[in-house]
Specification:
Blueprint: E1 2-7, H1 14-28, E2 32-37, E3 55-57, E4 69-74, H2 78-81, E5 92-96, H3 102-112, H4 115-126, H5 128-136, H6 142-149, H7 153-157, E6 162-165, H8 171-177, E7 182-184, E8 206-211, H9 220-228, H10 231-236, E9 237-242, H11 247-260, E10 265-269, H12 273-282, E11 285-288, H13 299-306, E12 311-314, H14 317-320, E13 328-330, H15 335-348, H16 350-367, H17 370-404, H18 411-423
Parallel strand pairs: 1-2, 1-4, 2-3, 4-5, 5-6, 6-7, 8-9, 8-11, 9-10, 11-12, 12-13
Length: 427
């Protein structure tokens, strides 16, 4: 099969690393793959990852007829995904890496300079009351409200011929909007840091690590307040955070740490892959809190688990679907008290840290195998291709019905819909 694979493809993107792994396996299966880079602006100038597939820019007009299928990787970052068409019917299959794509929507909307059009999309999908929340939400609360009320996933799903999602919790949202087949397939991610049970640092402290872009939904402030609330935690735990951070957020978090008396706290800022690997190897516990959880799945939590460290997550979204006993889960409504309890338990029990880390690593490596992902994805792509003629026929019938002035509840249209359902391939 000839595939056009639209994706960001620079080293800073976890979706790019996923794409490099999966397309390599697709090529090994005998398929022809062309990488269609979807970044815009400065990010498109970043060097591409190594690949044995041809690489072109997706914002050049590609000829869809050149491919048997175009696969579009969808994430909530306009700089990484704005090079693909964002307001047209796409004869393509989408892979939804993020469950909430409101930032992608707003990036597209800013380019159109047509707020009215954006408001009408939100109103059509979610209703007038939600539109008011979309218009009036403050910047600090916007993402939390978006995750609950207007994730905009349906905006993109409805223009595709099929989709893949990486967790069950947003499967029905995508399925309700996408006219073609939708399947859940666990995220493929081969972590860069192998499981390593060698001794950690020898400074007498237990090292806790958070990594990824530093923003409020990583809950770093809550970790600091949990450490401060129990003297044993404050004295014996060193907390390091690695990831790009704005000067304002750095100042805010360092002020909170000082107010709480947490002296073993260090913001590394953005780090190289080599330094991140070193920080993971030196850590005893990895904290992957997310609230609100906007991802469809998490490459960072898979990488953390694959490294053999015990991992703490928020009991929400894709994180809630990780089997109990492989990670420690924090209830959003009891965040600080749960953090204190779990950190203290891990502090007291090196054997439990090792047991949990080893079990998590085995599960995560089996769960996220790129070769298996490629095989299962290809089976789904074949289903999408099988249904595409039916979708085109249904679209044509819908256009004709509109020209005839038929109402949606007309008995003739119900009979036509029944015939299409009978023709639809059974999964």
């Amino acid at each position: 099969m000839k595939l056009g694979w639209a994706t960001p493809f620079n080293a800073n993107s976890a979706i790019a690393r996923f794409s490099a792994d999966v397309t390599r396996e697709l090529i090994a299966l005998g398929h022809e793959v062309t990488i269609l880079r979807s970044e815009v602006g400065e990010d498109l100038a970043l060097p591409p990852l190594p690949s044995n597939a041809p690489i072109i820019s997706a914002n050049r007009k590609w000829n869809a007829d050149k491919f048997d299928l175009v696969v579009i990787n969808i994430g909530d970052n306009h700089a990484y995904h704005g090079g693909i068409s964002l307001n047209a019917k796409l004869h393509a299959v989408g892979i939804f890496h993020d469950w909430c794509i409101v930032n992608l929507f707003n990036g597209w909307l800013a380019g159109t300079r047509d707020q009215f059009q954006g408001d009408e999309i939100v109103r059509r999908l979610y209703g007038a009351a939600v539109l008011r929340q979309f218009q009036e939400a403050s910047p600090r609360d916007f993402l939390e409200i978006a995750g609950r009320l207007f994730p905009m996933t349906e905006w993109y799903a409805e223009r595709l011929d099929g989709a893949l999602v990486h967790s069950d919790f947003y499967l029905e949202s995508v399925r309700s909007a996408c006219p073609g087949p939708v399947m859940r397939l666990p995220l493929a991610y081969a972590g860069r840091t192998p499981m390593d049970q060698s001794p950690r640092r020898t400074d007498g402290l237990i090292h806790v690590l958070t990594f990824g872009m530093v923003n409020p939904n990583k809950r770093i402030e809550s970790v600091l307040r949990a450490l401060a609330a129990r003297p044993e935690l404050k004295e014996r735990i060193a907390y390091r955070v690695a990831g790009s951070v704005t000067p304002q957020e750095r100042t805010r978090l360092e002020r909170i740490a000082a107010e709480c008396g947490v002296t073993h706290f260090h913001l590394e800022g953005r780090v190289s892959d080599d330094l991140l690997d070193k920080l993971i190897r030196e850590s005893d516990i990895i904290c992957c809190l997310r609230f609100p959880a906007l991802e469809g799945s998490s490459a960072s939590v898979l990488e953390a688990m694959q490294s053999g460290r015990p991992v703490i997550v928020t009991d929400t979204g894709c994180y809630a679907e990780i089997p109990d006993g492989l990670v420690l889960k924090i209830r959003p409504q009891a965040e600080i008290s749960d953090l204190q309890q779990h950190l203290f338990a891990l502090l007291q029990s090196p054997d439990e840290r090792e047991r949990m880390g080893q079990a998590a690593a085995l599960w995560a490596r089996d769960q996220s195998d790129p070769a298996r992902y490629a095989r299962d994805a290809m089976a789904h792509f074949q289903r999408v291709i099988t249904t595409q003629p039916l979708l085109r026929c249904a679209e044509s019938a819908g256009r004709e019905a509109g020209l005839w002035g038929l109402e949606p509840n007309d008995p003739f249209l119900r009979r036509v819909a029944t015939q299409f359902e009978n023709l639809w391939p059974k999964s």
